[in-house]
Design brief:
Number of strands: 13
CATH topology of the largest domain: Peroxisomal Thiolase, Chain A, domain 1
Bound molecules: oxa(dethia)-CoA
Largest sheet: 5 strands, mixed
Strand order of the largest sheet: 1-7-6-4-5
Number of helices: 10
Order of helices and strands: EEHHEHEHEHEHEEEEHEHHHEE
Helix content: 25-40%
Low-confidence stretches: none
Number of domains: 2
CATH architecture of the largest domain: 3-Layer(aba) Sandwich
Structural class: alpha/beta
Radius of gyration: 18 Å
Distance between the termini: 20 Å
CATH superfamily of the largest domain: Thiolase/Chalcone synthase
């Protein structure tokens, strides 16, 4: 049976220039390089310059993904940005990116599912591309998480960084089996009852402030390994592939201990896990496409390989996606 799949034809990433080390943070917050490395695996994170908005990270990531796909902005008919840190309350970052890269009139909007945003956005994009409603779609995860930090809260301010990653999705003919290139399976989850574990304490329709990120880290940690493992297994079942057949796990990068815990629970060889948490820290919706970009650029991830993407974040939201490159 012939089916149309949403095929990833290009991947790109962009990190702002400034690199902030753990020791830099220890100069003004009561922490240490030793604690951060031991509890999280994080060594550095990138920080956007004061005059860089999230669209300034998203646009170059999108242009790099288009170049990798052999496309130009003129081809783009759909832009979806997963972000929790938009330039402005409105319009959507996607429309600002559309203007900045010079894409023609098309469809553009944002998706807000915090750290799970990129997986959610891929699923939304699949609904357009695989149904013939988009010929060239940009799905972008972009964040300036450092703007949400309370720099006096050592439990959160050491964990996050800024960056953007993007993929190009195009329709491709498949045979309807697991050898097809493209997005093959999803599992998306949300549990609004757990809002208090991870949220931002300000907003447009409440107190009118941007607010700061608040997290009960150890509670989120407790849910993460169990929730992510269940979603990974459900996405693999949706795709019709055993978890063991996956070539690369490309997880959301929150904490090396979560990556290790999920790998252990699912019996995944740690050598198959792409980890960027040491250099990027947690870039929320940007972390998966940034890790994909890194794995492709350093030659580990190759065309035709099977990837399993997974994430969990505020909401709580979580999810996973199986994709053959
Ligand atoms: O992307 C969204 C999803 N987010 C996550 O997945 C994050 C999940 N959570 C985590 O990654 C971890 O829970 C943290 C890294 C946030 C914290 O690690 P933990 O091992 O769960 O530590 P804890 O919160 O239980 O705190 C242990 C101790 C506390 O001291 P006491 O009360 O035992 O004296 C904290 O005050 O570590 C202290 N602490 C710190 N010490 C030095 C907390 N943050 C710091 C810090 N430096 N930055």
């Amino acid at each position: 049976m012939s089916v149309v799949r949403s095929v990833v034809t290009g991947v790109g990433g962009y990190l702002p220039d400034e690199v902030v080390t753990n020791s830099d943070l220890a100069k003004f917050v009561d922490t240490s390089d030793e604690w951060i490395v031991e509890r999280t695996g994080i060594r550095t994170r990138h920080r956007a310059a004061p005059d860089q908005a999230v669209s300034d990270l998203a646009a170059p990531a999108a242009e790099r993904a288009l170049r990798a796909a052999g496309r130009t902005a003129a081809d783009v008919d759909l832009i979806i940005v997963a972000t929790t840190t938009p330039d402005l309350t409105f319009p959507a970052v996607a429309t600002i990116v559309q203007r900045k890269i010079g894409a023609p009139v098309g469809i553009a909007f944002d998706v807000q599912a915090v750290c799970s945003g990129f997986v959610y956005a891929l699923s939304v994009a699949d609904g357009f591309v695989a149904r013939g409603r988009s010929r060239c779609c940009l799905v972008i995860g972009a964040e300036t998480m450092t703007r949400l930090m309370d720099w006096e809260d050592r439990g959160t301010c050491v964990l996050f960084g800024d960056g953007a990653g993007a993929v190009v999705l195009e329709p491709g003919e498949g045979a309807g089996n697991t050898e097809d290139r493209g997005l093959l399976g999803f599992a998306l989850r949300a549990d609004g009852g757990k809002q208090d574990l991870l949220y931002v304490d300000g907003g447009v329709s409440t107190d009118g402030r941007i607010g700061h990120l608040r997290m009960q880290g150890n509670q989120v940690f407790r849910h993460a390994v169990v929730n992510i493992s269940e979603a990974v297994e459900a996405a693999a079942a949706d795709a019709g592939v055993p978890v063991a057949s996956v070539d690369w796990f490309v997880p959301h990068q929150a904490n090396q201990r979560i990556l290790d815990g999920v790998a252990k629970r699912l019996g995944i060889d740690p050598a198959k896990v792409i980890s960027t948490v040491a250099e990027h820290a947690n870039t929320s919706a940007a972390s998966i496409p940034l890790a994909m970009d890194q794995g492709i650029r350093d030659g580990r991830i190759k065309p035709g390989q099977l990837l399993l993407l997974e994430a969990m974040g505020g909401g709580l939201t979580w999810g996973a996606c199986v994709v053959r490159l």
